[in-house]
Amino acid sequence: MKPRLLLASDNKKKRAELLAMLGGLAVEVVTPSEIGGLPPVDEDRPTFAANAAKKARSGALASGLWCLADDSGLEVAALGGAPGVLSARYAGRHGDDAGNNAKLLADLRDFRPEQRAARFVCALALARPDGELALAVEASASGRILEAPRGTRDFGYDPLFLFTELGFAETGRGFAELEPAEKARVSHRGRAMRALLESWPAELS
Fold it and tell me: What is the residue-level pLDDT of the chain in tens, covering all 205 positions?
């Protein structure tokens, strides 16, 4: 019988990305809705890593399962690192992608392209069924904020993010223009997941 792993996310697009990356593991991945839900977690920590750890521990203790949690977001240098841990609720309402993007564009309206450096950050935390933290990793992807949305794969701030590593700036493609598999190879979440899998516990192999 495969061990069960709870993926503690109610964000459908984030969950889809993580599930695709977990596909090669010999585990049964379950989501909160499949186990009757999880108690809400106040994401009040000052860092992505601390919020991910808090969510992983809470999910593990509530379910009695191994629990993987993610906390991720966008940091813009010209805004002092904002939206940061408030990325999902930058405009005031959690999960309002359109509002968050509109606020970001408004906050950067007086900045030139070379002043719009930004990076996506992803922290992943894996907790044991007793709530003990087993693994924690963090990764990032660097780029800059565009002056208008581009691409059709809208997920969070992706339509405004131009990836500038690995020659992507020259190709003129943003995160919302990349195919899912292509994005997974270069994104903050893909990089974090690969780092996590390098130290994956034997109990879940």
Answer: 788 999 998 777 777 888 888 877 888 889 999 999 999 999 999 999 999 999 999 999 999 999 999 999 999 999 999 999 999 999 998 889 999 999 999 999 999 999 999 999 999 999 999 999 999 999 999 999 999 999 988 789 999 999 988 766 666 678 999 988 888 889 999 999 999 999 999 888 7
User: Exactly one of 10, 42, 44, 71 is catalytic; which is it?
Assistant: 71
21 three-class SS = helix
Side-chain-side CA neighbours of residue 97 (13 Å): 11
Q: Please say if 71 is a catalytic residue.
A: yes
Contact of 121 with 140, CB cutoff 8 Å: yes
The count of structural domains within the chain is 1
CATH number, domain of 78, equals 3.90.950.10
Q: Which residues contact 22 (CB under 8 A, 6 or more apart)?
A: 5, 7, 29, 68, 193
Q: For residue 119, list its beta bridge partners.
A: 75, 142
| Count of Cβ atoms closer than 10 Å to residue 48 Cβ | 26
Residue 49: its H or E element: helix 48-63
Cα angle vertex 145, ends 189, 152, to 5°? Answer: 65
Q: pTM score, two decimals?
A: 0.92
Which single residue is written with the structure tokens 């208008």?
148
Measured CA to CA, the distance from residue 99 to residue 81 in angstroms comes to 18
